[in-house]
């Protein structure tokens, strides 16, 4: 199961941290590392701090944006401090372990870690199904990124490998249909946005939190592939009706002249 | 309770590790650090890696041997790889958390961490009541000392401070908006059905499982009241566009006659 877990680091500044993350991952039996636009990589400091986990560094993928890093993942969890603008389904690291045990075989889990100085942006957090918060001293809450990876990877190892009891499985464990992956979900959200704008329900000049609310609603349901197809089929029907309406209105307008 | 926990580092070689330990301790709410014959301390690298936890470094005690570090402690736990010569009572980090919660008030717990390259000696381990082993990949089992402190301190914080439930996270438990009640959900589903029929996406003669799929998707997300209102607002917009389209088409039709 551990081989289906990807650690994603977004815009890491210090290469030493990347090395320390590789070491923590290998210590816990993880191997899939994806770097989103790291500042300095490869770098000798990364190798030094990896302390022998150079195979993880050498196999690491580099991509330009978070969307690419998670496109083939089925469940995406972003690390977050508390108190974001819109609350999102929040897990503890231990609950994340429980969720990982309930994934269908072969499903890929991504856990996303942000920049050293300011974590993940709201936009990046909204790409995630769940957020995970590592409990900390509220007066000194900023964990080193490798320390955060260490805690999460430890909980995942304990949940998936060690014989420790965890929570009962949640949604998706014994499901009849494959869960939709991130790419399919993103295309559904893009379709939603297009149709919402076309119906004038969403004003691009003043979008407020509408798409964030929709994302949160659907992501926490972990939609399966058929459900995504149903949703997109409905949106397509609305698109066609709107197109027919506009063409009829323009005809009607001409007739009035 | 956390103030009665001492972290003891034996013969640490790299001052950067001492700084990283101080940071991990302060992140988790620990403050009592004792250094047994560190190689280089104080040191600027320790300050740099402490990342603001300099109060822990400044208050750290330095002693010459482990016996001095633990003399006033009531329970001593040494970190250990498996497979020592003489088996010793062995805890997992989680079990250590349980032990910590069962200590009488005011009793002092020391957790002892060894050298970067070879851990604690057998003599040092025999000064300990229990050993604690952090589960690792057996093929790459040597944790960085600050990573080991991070895991132990995390488990101690979770056991002593955080209200950890064994239940899976309950969506909406601490939510900003009231969850929608059954009546509101039923009216949303009725609206969905009406609009789906109006758009001809749902054929009342052959409804298949469409409404069941929609119900299941939304119900398991436990929508809140605003999310239900957003959904109904969108459906209402679609209704209005359809009505306008039909009226325009019928006007268009009359003009053609």
UniProtKB/TrEMBL annotation, chains A, B:
It catalyses: cytidine(32) in tRNA + S-adenosyl-L-methionine = 2'-O-methylcytidine(32) in tRNA + S-adenosyl-L-homocysteine + H(+); uridine(32) in tRNA + S-adenosyl-L-methionine = 2'-O-methyluridine(32) in tRNA + S-adenosyl-L-homocysteine + H(+). It is found in: Cytoplasm. SUPFAM superfamilies: alpha/beta knot (SSF75217). Its EC number is 2.1.1.200. Residues 5-154 form the tRNA/rRNA methyltransferase SpoU type domain. InterPro entries: Alpha/beta_knot_MTases, RNA_MeTrfase_TrmJ/LasT, SpoU_MeTrfase, tRNA_m1G_MTases_N. One of its GO terms (biological process) is tRNA nucleoside ribose methylation. One of its GO terms (molecular function) is tRNA (cytidine(32)-2'-O)-methyltransferase activity. It comes from the Bacteria. One of its GO terms (cellular component) is cytosol. Pfam families: SpoU_methylase. Keywords: Cytoplasm, Methyltransferase, S-adenosyl-L-methionine, Transferase, tRNA processing. Catalyzes the formation of 2'O-methylated cytidine (Cm32) or 2'O-methylated uridine (Um32) at position 32 in tRNA. NCBIfam families: PRK15114.1, rRNA_methyl_1. Belongs to the class IV-like SAM-binding methyltransferase superfamily. RNA methyltransferase TrmH family. Homodimer. This is tRNA (cytidine/uridine-2'-O-)-methyltransferase TrmJ. It comes from Nitrincola tapanii. The lineage of its organism: Bacteria, Pseudomonadati, Pseudomonadota, Gammaproteobacteria, Oceanospirillales.
């Amino acid at each position: 199961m551990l081989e289906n877990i990807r650690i994603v680091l977004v815009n890491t500044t210090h290469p030493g941290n990347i090395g320390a993350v590789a070491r923590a991952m290998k210590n816990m039996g993880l191997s899939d590392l994806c770097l989103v636009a790291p500042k300095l990589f490869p770098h000798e400091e990364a190798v030094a701090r990896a302390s022998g986990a150079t195979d993880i560094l050498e196999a690491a993928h580099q991509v330009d944006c978070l969307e690419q890093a998670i496109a083939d993942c089925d469940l995406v969890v972003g690390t977050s401090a508390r108190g974001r603008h819109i609350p999102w389904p929040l897990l503890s690291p231990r609950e994340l372990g429980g969720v990982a045990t309930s994934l269908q075989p072969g499903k890929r889990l991504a856990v996303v870690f942000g920049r050293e100085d300011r974590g993940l942006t709201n936009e990046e957090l909204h790409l995630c199904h769940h957020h995970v918060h590592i409990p900390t001293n509220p007066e000194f809450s900023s964990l080193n990124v490798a320390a955060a990876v260490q805690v999460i990877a430890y909980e995942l190892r304990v949940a998936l490998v060690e014989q420790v009891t965890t929570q009962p499985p949640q949604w998706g464990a014994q499901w009849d249909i494959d869960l939709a992956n991130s790419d399919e979900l993103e295309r559904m959200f893009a379709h939603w946005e297009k149709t919402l704008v076309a119906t004038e329900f969403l004003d691009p000049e003043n979008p407020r939190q509408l798409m964030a609310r929709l994302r949160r609603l659907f992501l926490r349901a972990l939609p399966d592939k058929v459900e995504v197809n149903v949703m997109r089929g409905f949106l397509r029907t609305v698109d066609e009706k709107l197109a027919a309406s506009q063409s009829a209105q323009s005809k009607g307008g001409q007739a009035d002249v």
